[in-house]
What does this fold into?
Amino acid sequence: MDEMINIALPKGRLGEKVYDIFEQAGYACPSLKEENRRLTFENPELGVRYFWVKPSDVAIYVERGAADIGVAGKDILLEYSPDIYELLDLDMGKCRMCVAGPADFRDSRSRTLRVATKFPNIAREYYQSRSREIDIIKLNGSIELAPILGLSDVIVDIVETGKTLQENGLAPLETIIPISARLIANKAYFKFKNEQISRLCRNVEAIIK
Ligand code: PRP
It folds into this structure.
């Protein structure tokens, strides 16, 4: 059996910050810092193998066991409900899921609310809990354009600094839920490699606390 721990990191700035924490926790993999386009890196001495994965795909790799553990945003976990264990809140990549739109937007219950989003399940659940009928317009990016061009009334999206909204003449209207990065594990590998994964989890926790 493969005794290495296989770790899916979200490619990008958050992933690099997460790797720094893992390095401090004793799971260094120096080749990962080299400037190249490789996507897999390993340090056999320490028993770790890292993969750079598109952030929204990390949960898929972990759910299907292509990676034992990984780091995924709570937004993705809420949207796709993957069958994984959530081990640790890494207290990084913090932002919030919001309803946003023109600052002077007033909802009128007399008509269906048009909501543009990359997160249809989160949006549906939020408005269902408020018994508000909505029409979801699923987009894949640049969501802020939708209310500007009249494609939607509001958006449901991630707000970090609020700069994108502000620079496009929009404002956060309601906070749905705070978001942060989570350490997640494949359910079967969490059992098979319990000792290694639990140790890694404790070591990482000791660094972030
Ligand atoms: C996210 C989100 C907002 C932006 C918020 O987009 O969808 O557009 O970041 O950040 P801010 O509050 O700090 O301005 P992302 O960069 O993921 O690109 P996208 O357009 O592909 O969604």
